């Protein structure tokens, strides 16, 4: 079996450092876990290319000359398995190379891009799904993090959908004695991209007493700083500083209604900080409607989900922090890597589009 031997694996992603988001952290930690298991992992990212800033989102870098240079790199690397993580220029270029050379590959649906684009431009998400369905059609496994996303993509005509959970590094993210923000409590924290699709204003508009803290960067940062001068915008944080920001908060607020998972929720829980969120995809799958998650043997709430975000924040502030950290430890990176390798090794399902012949334009 493919996963039983040491592999040369190429992960192709348009999302990579210095971007700060769940996709980058997922792929970076996956790379580390796979290498610890003895595999060689090659990252084909915008760092290998000349890039231009993405319109309306300059921290996302779009790779130039992606088709020709991607082909040259893949010809040279001679890898055993290929995973395409994003639907950007590098993703399309890697897809084209695989089709041209008859190489099987897996893909992932990390981000609800049709909905993100709808939030930023006068385009309906339903108009965009055919393009994304076409991108993923030749994949022998479309990796998704939650049952809600699986059902959504199936309803849009996607095939070969494979479950792929997420994990948290509990060595980095854990409760910290003495971690604190020097602001009036309760400290209400948001971590992530500061962008319109994250619905951050729903958090910043809430009337819960205390201090609202935003960690992250993005195209909406300056506007939100001007509109909400009482909030504390700390910019991006990494490593120990990020973990300290989580551990020092009294509640982690996740206002997004479009995220397919929301890795930051698990990171916050691992630091002992309960979560407040809307009852939508992502939070429902990860935290459950009652805040006890998807595990049948777990019954202690670690999050509060409510259509009234202020009510969710107030309820989350009453939850047990020790239980939050214990809950997060159930999200193992070993399990994440095993599912990833199994998808790479799997045979295409019946009716799968063959990976052969000339690549479409």
Task: Give a verbal description of the structure.
Helix 4 runs antiparallel to helix 5. The protein has 361 residues and is of the alpha/beta class. The longest helix is centred in the first third of the chain and has 15 residues. Helices cover 37% and strands 16% of the residues. It has two domains: 178 residues, Rossmann fold, CATH 3.40.50; 145 residues, 3-Layer(aba) Sandwich (Rossmann fold), CATH 3.40.50.2000. The protein contains 14 helices and 14 strands. The protein is globular and about 60 Å long.
**Main CATH class of the largest domain:** Alpha Beta
Described by the principal axes of the CA atoms, the overall outline is: globular
Order of H and E elements: EHEEEHEHEHHEHEEHEHEHEHEHEHHH
| Main beta sheet | 6 strands, parallel
CATH topology of the largest domain: Rossmann fold
Output the number of helix runs: 14
Average pLDDT over all residues: 92
Q: What CATH architecture label of the largest domain applies?
A: 3-Layer(aba) Sandwich
- Estimate the strand proportion: 15-25%
Domains (count): 2
Unreliable parts: 354-361
* Number of E-type strands: 14
Helicity, as a percent range: 25-40%
């Amino acid at each position: 079996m493919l996963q039983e031997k040491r592999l040369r694996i190429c992960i192709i992603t348009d999302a990579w450092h210095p971007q700060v988001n769940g996709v980058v952290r997922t792929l970076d930690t996956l790379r580390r876990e796979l290498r610890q298991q003895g595999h060689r992992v090659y990252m084909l990212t915008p760092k290998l290319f000349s890039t231009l800033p993405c319109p309306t989102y300059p921290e996302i870098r779009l790779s130039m000359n992606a088709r020709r240079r991607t082909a040259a790199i893949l010809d040279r690397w001679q890898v055993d398995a290929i995973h395409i993580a994003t639907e950007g220029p590098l993703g399309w270029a890697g897809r084209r190379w695989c089709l041209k050379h008859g190489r099987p590959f897996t893909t992932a649906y990390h981000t609800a891009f049709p909905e993100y684009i709808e939030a930023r431009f006068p385009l309906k998400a339903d108009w965009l799904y055919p393009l994304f369905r076409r991108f993923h059609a030749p994949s022998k496994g479309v990796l998704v993090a939650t049952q809600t996303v699986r059902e959504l993509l199936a309803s849009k005509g996607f095939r070969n959908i494979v479950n792929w959970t997420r994990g948290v590094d509990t060595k980095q993210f854990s409760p910290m004695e003495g971690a604190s923000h020097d602001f009036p409590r309760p400290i209400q924290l948001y971590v992530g991209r500061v962008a319109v699709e994250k619905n951050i204003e729903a958090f910043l508009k809430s009337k819960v007493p205390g201090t609202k803290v935003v960690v992250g960067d993005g195209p909406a940062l300056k506007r939100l700083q001007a509109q909400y001068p009482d909030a504390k915008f700390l910019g991006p944080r990494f490593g120990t500083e990020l973990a300290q920001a989580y551990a020092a908060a009294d509640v982690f607020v996740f206002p997004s209604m479009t995220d397919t998972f929301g890795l930051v929720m698990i990171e916050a829980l691992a630091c002992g900080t309960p979560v407040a969120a809307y009852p939508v995809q992502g939070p429902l799958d990860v935290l459950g409607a009652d805040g006890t998650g998807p595990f049948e043997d777990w019954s202690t709430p670690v999050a509060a989900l409510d259509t009234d975000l202020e009510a969710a924040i107030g309820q989350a502030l009453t939850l047990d922090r020790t239980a939050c950290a214990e809950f997060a430890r159930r999200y193992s990176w070993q399990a994440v890597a095993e599912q990833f390798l199994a998808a790479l090794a799997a045979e295409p399902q019946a009716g799968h589009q063959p990976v052969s012949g000339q690549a479409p334009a």
